[in-house]
Amino acid sequence: xxxKINLFLSVILLPVLLVNSCKNSPESSTQPNIVIIFCDxxxxxxxxxxGHPTIRTPNLDQMAEEGQKxxxxxxxxxxxxxxxxxxxxxxxxxxxxxxxxRRVLFPNSIxxxxxxxxxxxxxxxxxxxxxxxxxxxxxxxxxxxxxxNHGFDSYFGIPYSNDMDLERTEDWVNHDHAMKExxxxxxxxxxxxDREIIERPAVQxxxxxxxxxxxxxFIRENKENPFFLYLAHNLPHIPLYTSEAFQDTSLRxxxxxxxxxxxxxxxxxxxxxxxxxxxxxxxxxxxxxxGPWLVFDQHGGSAGLLREGKGTTWEGGMREPTxxxxxxxxxxxxxxxxxxxxxxxxxxxxxAGADFPADRIMDGVDLSPSLFNEGEGLRxxxxxxxxxxxxxxxxxxxxAHFITESAYAGDDNLMHHNPPLLFHLGHDPxxxxxxxxxxxxxxADIMLEVERHQSELVIPESQLDRKKSE
Length: 470
Ligand code: MG
Hints:
Elements: H1 3-23, E1 33-39, H2 58-66, E2 68-70, E3 73-74, H3 80-89, H4 93-96, H5 120-125, E4 130-135, E5 154-157, H6 175-180, E6 191-193, E7 196-199, H7 207-221, E8 227-232, H8 253-275, E9 282-288, H9 315-318, E10 322-325, E11 333-335, E12 339-340, H10 344-352, H11 368-371, E13 381-386, E14 389-395, E15 398-404, E16 415-424, H12 440-455
Parallel strand pairs: 1-8, 1-9, 2-11, 3-12, 4-5, 4-8
Antiparallel strand pairs: 2-10, 5-6, 6-7, 9-10, 13-14, 14-15, 15-16
The structure holds magnesium ion.
């Protein structure tokens, strides 16, 4: 190409490139709103856009089409409480006390997320954000642990899992019967507004609908100022319930009905953002807390081609179908970089210009390079804990399992592996073919990561093992 043509192209194209890069630069947007939609026990394979053949998710499919579909996005644990603690604090549960021999918090728990932890909501509040938590909390239901004591201006939701406070009355048969008869009364779970119980048992047939209405109202009321909405659905954790409009509508049966109502809910949130003129200044993230609860057969979801589900450190337990949406800011596409719910904290802080905790070890990385096509993703490793033990580590495409155990079967299924099992998650996403013998150097490299990680670990008291004396 001649010098003249080069010069011509530079003069003509340079301003265009600059305009484009400015348009896609988060710095040009002042304090975007941040919405995290978090499901409970949704499997990697449960959305149309992630390949489910019969569950219809037109809103999520469109969200993925307009945004980014992340195919290597992880949670911090394979069950509810520690996973939620990881998202909210940007730290592994092993650092914040939200893991233990009891795997989640129960109604007789007296522990919860400690005040010394900093939450995303608290960080964003330092930058002037309005904050709301709608839905499942599960980080402590006693007053001192509730969302309104952790940086949220308001709370509306069931503070733990929707199958808790089970009332085994005379007519109790089993969960299947309760779902078939649409009898939510067996689960005497409270519905709270801020610190008050306003309904008990919570009417679960309308819970997704009401969480949605509450979220839409919050968005409308805060359209003039930056806001953070954490919408954490109680479903599709069993028992499964839907509002009447979604009853018996899905080819996938009741589980499909529930997912299709959540899809409707996502559509309502995105439509509200569009109608209020907020879409181009709002980043929405959709994901879930852990994989499908496979022991519930057809009432549990599917991890697609990933191995196993909820409760395990196989990929099906901790990799989640994740979508980022921010029209005009996020370049649409499929992202295979690694990401984690723990990364949402630093990413949100960066976008909001909020203070990022500097006095503690954080486990999240800023996702901006991947989101805004600025360069290589920053996350290179993922630590898979179960209770307080490290079961597996992923580094780049390789994952080593030191311990494997099925979801709930107990110690007879627990196996230690030395050398560890080794899988290449690119070539073998289903973790079928152990290649440890061929790659001692990869295992040695991963062991170095483990040493580095463990040398700086300080493990606090388990909040999950604190319970009322019987
Ligand atoms: Mg869960």
